[in-house]
């Protein structure tokens, strides 16, 4: 999960262009969108969102679980944390569990299932394993997973819309297990997705790995965005520059900020023991986005589709290790 807010709030920076702008409040029906450039799919608007799901008292809670305000996140002008061996092992466990939940959720992505159904499944699976769903009440987010469909490129809030044949859905799972967060995401095809949509998902995953392959001790953080954007451009796709990766540990979001485009680069170089996410959003259009009236749902201005893949990685002495496997 990555949060597009201000630098002071959680380090989501907007460089070279404005941050996602609020859309004039509106609520529309889901209608078929057809364009020669983008394909055939439903343009998604806001649906009805159910109440947050309860968390048992025995589950260990992150700092924001009751108030909505994270109080343990380091300032983004501080150097990225270098995790010790014990912390790294705990992060491995939380990241491995996050990937297990994501893989388990994949089988639920069938025509007719609502994203609220998926939220219930993810929530219950995490709670049953004595963990906490990290998105729940993080800055008052109402749900336990992010589900972004078609033109919704990030922070989609699970609701009552049934998935339909041809949907692209990005599922972003984050867990808080034994005091440490783990974070990962993937984009899936529901039923028969058209060729442009399948291409988008394929290239988006490849972009994520291009960014990861640019990581290693002594390498510049700016190398990540350069590798991602150059690859996306080769396939006539765009990076959404306002969605960034982040450091992670006992806190959900912290330094470094991982830019996925060449508009800007986080200063400094990577060091062994640093842990952060690489999670570019790749879209068919020009990358301009806006926020719907719920304050969370980020959509493309031109209604083009987006796709996102995310891994949490550790910088090692010889290169990198993907923790969310």
From TrEMBL:
Q: Which reaction does it catalyse?
A: Release of N-terminal amino acids, preferentially methionine, from peptides and arylamides
* Residues holding substrate: 155, 253
Source organism per entry reads Aphis craccivora (Cowpea aphid)
**Which HAMAP family did the record assign?**
MetAP_1
The first-level EC class reads hydrolase
Q: Which Gene3D superfamilies match?
A: Creatinase/methionine aminopeptidase superfamily
A molecular function annotated in GO for this UniProt entry is: metal ion binding
Tell me the protein's name: Methionine aminopeptidase
Q: Which domain of life does this protein belong to?
A: Eukaryota
Q: Tell me its cofactors.
A: Co(2+); Zn(2+); Mn(2+); Fe(2+)
Binding-site positions, a divalent metal cation 1: 172, 183, 310
